[in-house]
Amino acid sequence: MTVAHTPSRREPAPRDSTTHLFEVGQVVRLRGGYGIFTSRFGDIYRITATMPPSGSSLQYRIRNEREQHERVATEDSLEAVRATEPGEGVALLDKTFSR
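Below the sequence we write its predicted structure tokens.
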């Protein structure tokens, strides 16, 4: 009997639900529409600690440098912020608004 071998297609490994997506020190932004935060959505925060899950949501301690306290946020309420190079924001403003 002959068995034909077909190459197996690799499926992406499922993400471990206990593995945090963000790292301590990473810069993040709050996504809008959750109603539990008193700050303005879009403010920039830094991850200060990872925390155990609350139900099925991983949690983080985050801090905005303008605030005196830290907050707790779930992973699904955060999005990564790309760090800009020095002068990059100014160049974009010049390109956008210069005549």
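The chain has one helix and five strands.
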